[in-house]
Amino acid sequence: GVQLTESGGGLVQPGGSLTLSCVVPTDKANYWQISWLRQAPGKALEWVSSISTQQSTFYSDSVKGRFTISRDSGTNTVTLDLNNLKSEDTAMYYCAQDVGSRFGKAFNNRGQGTQVTVSS
């Protein structure tokens, strides 16, 4: 299968910003709906955001207004801009192909993840 690749994580202070990138290495990338997920230590995998093939965007209530998802069809890259970060945003962030009938329910080809740590 195709494995997506995330990058851009790091350590940031509360209130800071990061930009995560997800490369979708397939010529079918523009036909895939892509989601970002995250998993904090000891917690379940959590859906964060999705973007459709038509550039429609969706966010969980916990990140709405702070995170922005976008995609570049030329580079097969999906970006997640994280702003006003909080300690509760600390998690491993993954991107994946969203294959459910509704966003945030079923995924394929999840990447290895990139760690985001928010701490002073």
**Mean pLDDT score:** 95
* Strand element count: 11
Helical content (DSSP H or I, runs of 4+): under 10%
Given the helix and strand composition, which structural class is it?
mainly beta
Q: What count of helical segments does DSSP give?
A: 0
Dominant shape: globular
Question: For the report, how would you describe the main beta sheet?
Answer: 7 strands, mixed
What integer value in Å does the Rg equal? Answer: 13 Å
From N to C, what is the helix and strand string?
EEEEEEEEEEE
Strand content: over 45%
Query: Which runs of at least 5 residues are low in confidence (pLDDT < 50)?
Result: none
What is the CA-CA span between the terminal residues?
39 Å
Question: Mind sketching the topology for me?
Answer:
Elements: E1 5-7, E2 10-12, E3 18-23, E4 34-39, E5 46-51, E6 57-59, E7 67-72, E8 77-82, E9 91-98, E10 107-108, E11 114-118
Parallel strand pairs: 2-11
Antiparallel strand pairs: 1-3, 3-8, 4-5, 4-9, 5-6, 7-8, 9-10, 9-11
Structure, described:
The chain has strands spanning 5-7, 10-12, 18-23, 34-39, 46-51, 57-59, 67-72, 77-82, 91-98, 107-108, 114-118. It has 120 residues and is mostly beta strands. Strands 2, 4, 5, 6, 9, 10 and 11 form a 7-stranded mixed beta sheet that branches. A hairpin with a 5-residue loop joins strand 5 and strand 6 (57-59). The radius of gyration is 13 Å and the shape is globular.
Short note summarizing the structure:
With 120 residues, this protein is an all-beta fold. The chain is built from no helices and 11 strands.
Short key terms for the protein model shown above:
120 residues, mainly beta, 0% helix
